From TrEMBL:
It comes from the Archaea. This is 4-hydroxy-tetrahydrodipicolinate synthase. The keyword rRNA processing does not apply. It comes from Thermofilum adornatum 1505. InterPro entries: Aldolase_TIM, DapA-like, Schiff_base-form_aldolases_AS. PANTHER family: 4-HYDROXY-2-OXOGLUTARATE ALDOLASE, MITOCHONDRIAL (PTHR12128:SF66), DIHYDRODIPICOLINATE SYNTHASE (PTHR12128). One of its GO terms (biological process) is small molecule metabolic process. One of its GO terms (molecular function) is 4-hydroxy-tetrahydrodipicolinate synthase activity. The lineage of its organism: Archaea, Thermoproteota, Thermoprotei, Thermofilales, Thermofilaceae. It is an enzyme of class 4 (lyase). Pyruvate binds at residues 48, 210. Keywords: Lyase, Schiff base.
Length: 301
């Protein structure tokens, strides 16, 4: 049984103007660009999209615009993460009424809950939001590493738990997701949040990834995914090494959002490099490093 979500999903950046208001024209352009370059889905109100810097109204507006541009062509799976469980539920219900495909949710990221409290948070969302839900494990920002055993419990209890996005540097974690959770629920999607883990996770039996560089060059991610799923392992490996080269942009930048925005800038995309404080645009030397890398990879917009 195939997972509902698979392949290459973009955690959509939020383009800003110089005055830090949302650049809706850039949102429209970027959504079309990503759909044309092969993403299976778009995740607005994401980590890379600086969701913690957006108001509720802004999150709704960005998602509405993405739906207008590419709804029906790719999945639109916005984030509903919040520190107050009821806020996640309310946002999820609003997005459902807008016609999104699903939603993504992290643990709360202020009070570091665990055990039964963490289970209650996710259970309440799964019970009250009538959408396929992807739970997002990103311990570097939430301070909580969701146990595989908890995801297994939730997957058995809630059919609308569609999968997990895990931004963790652990093969063991992914192996256990596949061997424990996916073994019980064949339709449970195991997705990496790290571009460089795409091929290893697929080879372990996972389904794909929600990866920040799919904002810029999803055709490279698709080449890895398509080669692997068609059985061409040699090509998958070659394309993965191209992706690994591209991943160096994270080594140059100070954050995921500014890495993506800077790369778009050096490729002359109609997306400005502004991020909301405390994030700030990358310096010229970082731009120059990314421009060199983009030339070596033959990237164009």
């Amino acid at each position: 049984m195939k997972s509902k979500f698979y392949g290459v999903i973009s955690p959509f950046i939020t383009p800003f103007k110089e005055d830090y208001s949302i650049d809706l024209e850039a949102v429209r352009w970027l959504a079309r660009f990503q759909a044309e370059r092969g993403v299976h889905g778009i995740f607005p109100n994401s980590t890379t999209g600086e969701f913690v810097h957006l108001s509720r109204e802004e999150a709704l507006e960005i998602t509405r615009v993405v739906l207008e541009e590419v709804g029906g062509k790719v999945w639109v799976i916005p984030g509903i993460s919040a520190n107050y469980t009821e806020d996640s539920i309310a946002l999820g219900k609003t997005f459902r009424d807008m016609g999104v495909t699903g939603a993504v949710v992290t643990p709360p990221f202020f009070f570091k809950i665990s055990g039964e409290r963490l289970k209650k948070h996710f259970s309440a969302i799964l019970e009250k939001v009538d959408l396929p839900i992807i739970i997002y494990n990103i311990p570097a920002t939430t301070g909580i590493n969701i146990p595989v055993a908890l995801l297994h419990e939730l997957a058995k209890e809630y059919s609308n738990l569609a999968g997990v996005k895990a931004t963790v540097e652990s093969f063991t974690y992914f192996r256990q997701l596949v061997q424990i959770v996916k073994a019980d629920r064949r339709d449970f999607a195991v997705l990496t949040g790290l571009d460089d883990f795409l091929l290893p996770v697929l080879m372990m039996g996972g389904d794909g990834g929600i990866m920040a560089l799919a904002n810029v060059a999803p055709q490279i991610h698709r080449a890895v995914y398509d080669a692997y799923t068609s059985g061409d392992l040699n090509r998958a490996l070659r394309e993965w090494h191209r992706l690994l080269k591209l991943v160096q942009v994270y080594d140059y930048a100070t954050s995921f959002p500014t890495a993506v925005k800077t790369l778009l800038k050096v490729l002359n995309a109609p997306v400005k490099p502004y991020a909301r404080m405390p994030l700030t645009p990358e310096p010229r030397e970082t731009e120059e490093k990314m421009a060199r890398l983009a030339r070596e990879l033959g990237l164009t917009i």
